Amino acid sequence: MRKLLFFNILILYFLNGYAQQDFTTYYMDALPQSSYSNLTNSFNGKLFVGLPALSSTYAMYSNNSFAWSDVIEKRNDSLILGFPRLIDNLNEKNYMSIVAQTDILSFGIRIGKRSTLLFNVTEKASVKFLYPRDLIQFIDQGNSGFNDNTANFEGLGVNFTHYREYGIGLNRSFKDDQLILGARIKYLYGMENVDSKKTDISIFTDPNTYEINAKGDIRYNTSGLNDSIGDVGSYLFGKNNHGLGIDLSGSYKINDKLTINASLIDLGFIRWKDDVKNYVNNGGEFNFTGIDIDEFILNETDSLGNTSFDRVIDSLGEAFELEEEFGSYTSGLPARVYIGGTYQVTKKGMVGGLIQTEFFKNKINPSLTLSYNHKFSNLFHASASYTVINNSFNNLGGGIIFHPGPIQLYVVADNILGAFQPQNARHLQLRAGINIVVGKNKLDQEKSSKNKKKAEKE
Q: Which residues are CB-contacts of 299 (< 8 A; sequence separation ≥ 6)?
């Protein structure tokens, strides 16, 4: 029963599916949505408009410890979660994440010859789950699985966030495009949040007497979970949960072929004030010395009518009773850092290297991506990538941009094989959409004229 309960909890976390991770998209500069991670990119045109709710649909799943095929076993006609195999695959600290995003509105416009102005309204939802190996081992084996008879759940944490982002970005080139700088300021409107600030729990079982001592120091903050949607207008626009964020990017062209770049994305916070309920236990302790087996079997009661089992449950509840508080709190965004470079191997082909690191609750999640982008024609661009992330080495990605006239259609994935065999993947990411891009021919003419003048000077 306890294993089934745990499995259901994991499924609930997954179904609820903060930070996006763009690896293949990062160097696809003809795609307006590449600016979400690399603000030095300017789309290939004078003006772009994203079709509402269709210009960018994004989904990501990431797990740093196992693929489902590693831990799911088939017995007869049923699939079950194999705990021994799961425990063997776990790290000391483990991390899972699901992200879903969609652009409600987006557009961009070039200002003069050097600047691009970008605007977006994006709905974002995510779940991030941190858990120690001890938690899974304790569920499966109890304290018998620990050499010191102590199970330590320090670091257990979850963050669920639903918010809307209003962003205004600007990039500008200097010194004939040798240096490009970009920044985006974002207003964040929060709707729901669960944020674990502290979950320090340990359970010790005496190897001789089997007495149990459990200690807990817990704080979970929540907002919006008890507030019914009711008035749709108040829910969508009237909540008092506000935040700010910033994205920064820069690139420097060392020569005609080699360029280096870096980005800092999602540095920010949300202050939660509406429908706040916080659950706190400051160092509760529970000691269980056992029960009289005869009393337990006969279900005998004390003078207050409580059975032995009732007294155990009551003591445990008192030890770990969570007090409710209602003060506002602040949650941070999981910031990401990108550092990389590109090399122009041909007039139409470019190779790139990218190191990305995400920071969340003192957890660092790094990755490495190698990519190749090729512009076959004004009509068709393509990208291929290879990413190492979550201790997995089977992430072959790709992207295509089809640009017939002013319509731009695209799809990008960081793990194409995982899309067909998700049970074998630790990382899955997909972005797809439709944009309207105009002024492309005029921009090409300006670039051609600029390059001609530059050649004449040389």
A: 307
Distance between CA atoms of 299 and 446, rounded to whole angstroms?
A: 88
How far is the C-alpha of 181 from the C-alpha of 183, rounded, in Å? 7
List phi, psi (to 5°) of 225: -85, -25
Report the predicted TM-score, pTM, of the whole model to 2 decimal places.
0.82
- Model pLDDT for residues 366-402, shown as the tens digit of each residue: 899 999 999 998 889 999 999 998 878 889 999 999 9
What size, in residues, is the chain? 458
Please give the Cα distance from 282 to 57 (Å, whole number). 42
Residues 6 or more apart whose CB falls under 8 angstroms from that of 86 comprise 66, 70, 71, 136
Assign residue 72 a region: left if phi > 0, alpha if psi is -120 to 50, beta otherwise? beta
Q: Which residues of 89-206 form beta strands (DSSP E)?
A: 93-111, 115-132, 150-152, 157-174, 179-205
* Exposed / middle / buried, residue 252 (Cβ in 10 Å: 0-12, 13-18, 19+): middle
**Cβ(196)–Cβ(156) under 8 Å?**
yes
The single residue listed with the structure tokens 């965004």 is 333
Cα 33 from Cα 344, distance rounded (Å)? 22
Task: Confirm if 432 and 100 have CB atoms less than 8 A apart.
Answer: no
The rounded Cα 380 to chain-centroid distance in angstroms is: 30
What was the pLDDT predicted at 213?
A: 78
The three-point CA angle 287-288-293 to 5° equals 170
21, 161, 186 from 101: Cα distances, Å: 12, 12, 15
Predicted pLDDT at 288: 62
Which residue type does 249 have? Answer: S
Q: How far apart are CA 401 and CA 385, in angstroms?
A: 15
Query: Read out DSSP for 195-237?
Result: EEEEEEEEEEE-TTT--EEEEEEEEEEEESSS----SHHHHHH
Of 95, 91, 92, 73, nearest to 83 by C-alpha is 73
